[in-house]
User: Fold this.
Amino acid sequence: MADVATTLDTSFDDAPDPDVAHGGHGYATNTGLSNTKLAMWLFLASECLLFGGLITTYLLYKIPAAGHGPAPHELYDIPFTSISSFVLLMSSLTMVLAVSSIERGDNQRFRLWIVATALLGSVFISGQVYEFSSFVSEGMGYTTSRSSSAFYTLTGFHGVHVTIGIIMLVSVLLLSHRGHLHRGNAETVEVVGLYWHFVDVVWILIFALVYLIP
Amino acid sequence: MAATTHEPDVVHHEAHENRDKKYVLIALILAGLTVIEVLTYSIPDAFGGKASTTLIVALMVLMAIKFWTVAWFFMHLKFDKRLLTVVFYAGLSLAVLVYLAILTVFRFWGPPESHMIKNT
Assistant:
């Protein structure tokens, strides 16, 4: 495992240096960074607090009192959720390939990878809708117990984030079709990619903490 | 002359192609880690049994590795300025500390009977 990590760490030496990519001078800002990218990272840092709060609430209310309907963990379909998790994980790959394509000016492949990412995101959301509807049909509604409310709020908020991500991907695709996106402003796509990857890492946490840990 | 003019582009293109292959490799590693996570559910005895400390620690470690891998490679923290890493991990660390404190205050770490919140 350590060898693989070392190989990956050193094998990215061909990656463009951010300073060199901008004429060796970085951006004309106080930090030398793009303000857009810095703003997105600050936003994502604040999102850690939002999702941390939602995950904590779920953990505190995880076990409903007797007579208040089934607990979420009694209804989980782990094989199904595992496939959803895999789909979202692969959407991170297609997203990073889309960023790589626009950076080298390959608009055809860029559009292909963006469409693939949006489709994988849609599959994930469809899975979540199916999961929610099957939980409701088994007697666990939003107000059945504090446990169910915490579960639906956490996973629902994540689902809303994925949906917003899909809207951003479609917007980027439309911009590309109208000729507004090219190698020179690839950063727009990178920033959308940051948001998308964040949604993926949040699901990595939810999948382990909410679904898998007994 | 024309060949010389296009040479940097070709080199740049090859570098991108190599990078894409490495992204695919990373995704395969992430998929493998996810399979191990799912195995903790399907064969918990291999990880010390359901709800065992070993299983929980294994899941937490796998989760942390996956989180770091996506942030470091896919989110380009490895390639970007260190300030962005500091900004993100500052927010993450603050969240972890605040919510660990809250879970401790509500006596989450003991058995369910000891929890301060009685679920209704």
Observations:
- Chain A touches chain B through 69 residues (CB under 8 Å).
- Chain A has a mean pLDDT of 89.
- The two ends of chain A are 27 Å apart (CA to CA).
- Chain A is about 70% helix and 0% strand.
